[in-house]
Amino acid sequence: MMNIFKKTIFSVLFSLLIIGNVNADKIKIGTEGAYPPWNSKDASGKLIGFEVELAYTLCRYIGQQCEIVEQDWDGMIPALIMRKFDAIMAGMSITAERQKAISFSQGYADEVASLAVMKGSDLEGMDTPEGINLTLGGSGVKKTLKTLTGALAGKTVCTQTATIHQNFLESGDVGKINLRTYKTQDEVNLDLASGRCDVALAAAVAFTDYAEKSGKPVVLVGPTFSGGAFGNGVGVGIRKDDTELLKAFNKAIEKARKNGDISRIATKWFGFDASM
């Protein structure tokens, strides 16, 4: 009986070892699936988008298989830390605040933000520069923020919760506003189109993608935003103790950039080269 017991234990341990080795060759990557064209789902429910295609490309360079895991945005970092997946590719900008909790690869794309309104809004005529970088600052940025403060006073401004866009709107840089947050960008888009939002803030490409696919007259207004609260590009989020995986992703991003893969995939999904 003892020999049978030992054989059974050995067999179970051997099976677990094999399973562990198989899983070690697969990188699980978390994405939202609700932030087109960065990541979304097609009519059949399959995850698609710029980051989904890029994830498979990076995994090929690393030499491992990818498994894309869908995760609600507001639970993305906690799920990574709890090891639901190994990395995040979800339009997540690299910010100092997020770097307190997780590590980031080098940036692979730029996510400039913009305000959007429905055509006919009185905000369409805002006199601002084409874009501002909050990190650079200066008199031009201060003047633009003052213009935005006046323009947004009394308006209902909508954005997705737990994002860099919410952080900016709550920073006081554009005064005290009537802020409304939503679980997904799709909900922001729908309420903007229905008139429940006067203006919304998100990645510029999220609005242009929605306008193109829905036919709704969504218009970008004001400057594009970068730097400061908006971070330093979008990167792969990785647990702080996974240093080897971080190195692997950085090498893969370098190869993908050198070979033109990131530029090609970005142009396919965005309509322009948003690679870094």
Structural commentary:
With 276 residues, this protein is of the alpha/beta class. It contains nine helices and 13 strands. A six-stranded mixed β-sheet has the order 8-12-7-11-9-10, sandwiched between helices. Strands 4-1-5-13-6 form a five-stranded mixed β-sheet. Helix 2 packs across helix 8 and helix 2 packs antiparallel against helix 9. The N terminus is likely disordered.
Quick synopsis:
By secondary structure, this protein is α/β, with parallel strands linked by helices. It contains 9 helices and 13 strands. α2 (50-62) packs across α8 and α2 (50-62) runs antiparallel to α9 (261-270).
Keywords:
disordered N terminus, single chain, globular, five-stranded mixed sheet, six-stranded mixed sheet, 9 helices, 276 residues, 20% strand, alpha/beta, 13 strands
Shape type: globular
What fraction of residues sit in β-strands? 15-25%
Number of helices: 9
Oligomer: single chain
What is this structure's SSE topology?
Layout: H1 2-24, E1 26-31, E2 40-41, E3 47-48, H2 50-62, E4 65-70, H3 76-81, E5 87-88, E6 103-104, E7 113-118, E8 131-133, H4 139-152, E9 156-160, H5 164-169, E10 178-182, H6 185-194, E11 199-203, H7 204-214, E12 218-226, E13 237-238, H8 243-258, H9 261-270
Parallel strand pairs: 1-4, 1-5, 8-12, 9-10, 9-11
Antiparallel strand pairs: 2-3, 5-13, 6-13, 7-11, 7-12
